[in-house]
C-alpha cells in the first residue's frame, strides 16, 4: 500500500480534472433573465412578495435565501394563500411577525435542487397511490406557516428550472448526451489508473484479473471536483471485479479525504444514504445506477445553466 | 378541523401538496413533511384499475411538470 502511494500518489493527483467552476458562481447567475425584475435592486429577485438575497462569495453562497416578509406590508400572507392538500388552512400571522420569527428551514441549496430533481426523475419504483387523510395540526404540529412552504419550495424550483429549460429550448436536451458529457470529465479517473503490468494476473478465462491501481482511483476521487461523479466513473467503467474495485476505491477515497461523501464510511453507507438498499438491506446496484445518473444529470443542468448565463454577460 | 392528505414512500411521509391533470396525465407534487425543501414530483400510472405513483421520465418532463405548477399557483403568490 505504501509503495503504491509513493509511486502513484502525486502523479494521479495531477491527473484530476481541473475545476471548470468559477469562483463567482452564484445561484443568481442561474436564474431566468426576468427573475427579480419586480424589484428595483438588481441584486435581489422576488417571487411575489418573497425576496431572495444574494449571499456573496462565502462558501455557503450557493443557496437561495428567502427573506420572509413581515406583516406590515405583506400581500402574500394577507391574501391567505391556499394550496391543495392544505385546504382552507389559515395563516397565523404571528409566525411571520418579525425577522426573528422566520421559519428555520427557508434555504434551498443547489444540492437540494439536484436531489429533488433526481428524486423525481430517477425513481423507477412504483408506489400504490393510497392517500391518508390527516388533521393538518397533526402533520404541521400547529405551525401554520408550513402550509405555505411546500408550495413555495416547489415554486423556487419552478423559477430555476423552467426558466432555464425555456431559455435553452427543451428540444435540445438529451439525457444520454448530458450524462455522457458529464462523465467524460471524469473518465480519466478510471483511465489514468489502469496499470498495464507485464505478466498481469489473469483469471481462469485468461482475462486481466486486477489491472487497476485502486488506491490511485481513490485518491483521484478524493480530489475530483465532483467525487460522486468520479466514483460513478470508476463503477460504471470497471469490467472485472467491478464491485470490489468500487468498494475499495471508495475506501481509499475516504482515507485520502475524510470530508467527502459526508458521514458515509463505506460504499454501502453511501449507497444507503441515496436510498438504494433493497428490503434485505443489500445494495441494489440497479437502483444506485438510476439514482446516480439522475443526480449527475441534474448537476449537468445546473452546470450548463451557469455557463450559459456567463456567456450572456 | 382542516384536513390534509399524506402518503408514505420509502417510509418517508409526504404531504400531497397538489395534483395537476394535463393531457391525460396526472402529476402529483409531494413535500416531505419534516423538510419541505425536500420534495419530488411523481405521476400516476393506472394498472388494473389501481393507481400507482411512478417517477418522471426525463428532465423535460420534470420542467414541464414544474411549469404546470407554476402556472397554477403563481397568481396566488403575487
Commentary on this structure:
The complex is a heterodimer of chains A (313) and B (78). Chain A is of the alpha+beta class and 313 residues long. Helices cover 46% and strands 7% of the residues of chain A. Chain B has one helix and five strands. The longest helix of chain B has 19 residues, at 59-77. In chain B, strands 1-2-3-4-5 form a five-stranded antiparallel beta sheet, with helices on one face. The N and C termini of chain B lie far apart (27 Å). With 78 residues, chain B is of the alpha+beta class. The interface between A and B is large, with 69 and 54 residues.
Keywords:
heterodimer; A: 313 residues; alpha+beta; 12 helices; disordered N terminus; B: 78 residues; 1 helix; 5 strands; globular
Could you write a compact summary of the structure shown?
Chain A is α+β, with helices and mostly antiparallel strands and 313 residues long. Helices cover 46% and strands 7% of the residues of chain A.
Amino acid at each position: 500500500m505504501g509503495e503504491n502511494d509513493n509511486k502513484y500518489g502525486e502523479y494521479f493527483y495531477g491527473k484530476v480534472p481541473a475545476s471548470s467552476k468559477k469562483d463567482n458562481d452564484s445561484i443568481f447567475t442561474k436564474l431566468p433573465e426576468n427573475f427579480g425584475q419586480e424589484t428595483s435592486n438588481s441584486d435581489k429577485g422576488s417571487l411575489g412578495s418573497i425576496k431572495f438575497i444574494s449571499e456573496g462569495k462565502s462558501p455557503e453562497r450557493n443557496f437561495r435565501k428567502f427573506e420572509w416578509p413581515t406583516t406590515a406590508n405583506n400581500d402574500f400572507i394577507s391574501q391567505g394563500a391556499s394550496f391543495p392538500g392544505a385546504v382552507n388552512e389559515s395563516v397565523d400571522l404571528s409566525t411571520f411577525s418579525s425577522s426573528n420569527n422566520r421559519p428555520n428551514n427557508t434555504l434551498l441549496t443547489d444540492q437540494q435542487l439536484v436531489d429533488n430533481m433526481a428524486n423525481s426523475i430517477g425513481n423507477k419504483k412504483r408506489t400504490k397511490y393510497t392517500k391518508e387523510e390527516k388533521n393538518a395540526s397533526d402533520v404541521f404540529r400547529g405551525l401554520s406557516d408550513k402550509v405555505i412552504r411546500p408550495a413555495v419550495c416547489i415554486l423556487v424550483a419552478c423559477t430555476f428550472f423552467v426558466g432555464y429549460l425555456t431559455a435553452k429550448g427543451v428540444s435540445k436536451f438529451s439525457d444520454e448526451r448530458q450524462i455522457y458529457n458529464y462523465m467524460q470529465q471524469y473518465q480519466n479517473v478510471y483511465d489514468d489508473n489502469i496499470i498495464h503490468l507485464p505478466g498481469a494476473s489473469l483469471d481462469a478465462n485468461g482475462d486481466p484479473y486486477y489491472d487497476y491501481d485502486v488506491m490511485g482511483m481513490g485518491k483521484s476521487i478524493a480530489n475530483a471536483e465532483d467525487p460522486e461523479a468520479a466514483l460513478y466513473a470508476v463503477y460504471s467503467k470497471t469490467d472485472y471485479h467491478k464491485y470490489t474495485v468500487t468498494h475499495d476505491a471508495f475506501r481509499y477515497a475516504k482515507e485520502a479525504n475524510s470530508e467527502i461523501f459526508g458521514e458515509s464510511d463505506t460504499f454501502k453507507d453511501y449507497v444507503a444514504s441515496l436510498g438504494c438498499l433493497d428490503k434485505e438491506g443489500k445494495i441494489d446496484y440497479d437502483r444506485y445506477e438510476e439514482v446516480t445518473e439522475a443526480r449527475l444529470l441534474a448537476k449537468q443542468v445546473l452546470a450548463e445553466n451557469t455557463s450559459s448565463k456567463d456567456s450572456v454577460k | 378541523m382542516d384536513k390534509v392528505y399524506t402518503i408514505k414512500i420509502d417510509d418517508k411521509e409526504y404531504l400531497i401538496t397538489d395534483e395537476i391533470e394535463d393531457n391525460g396525465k396526472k402529476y402529483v407534487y409531494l413535500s416531505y413533511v419534516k423538510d419541505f425543501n425536500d420534495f419530488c414530483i411523481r405521476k400516476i400510472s393506472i394498472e388494473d384499475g389501481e393507481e400507482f405513483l411512478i417517477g418522471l421520465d426525463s428532465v423535460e418532463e420534470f420542467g414541464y411538470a414544474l411549469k404546470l405548477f407554476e402556472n397554477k399557483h403563481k397568481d396566488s403568490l403575487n
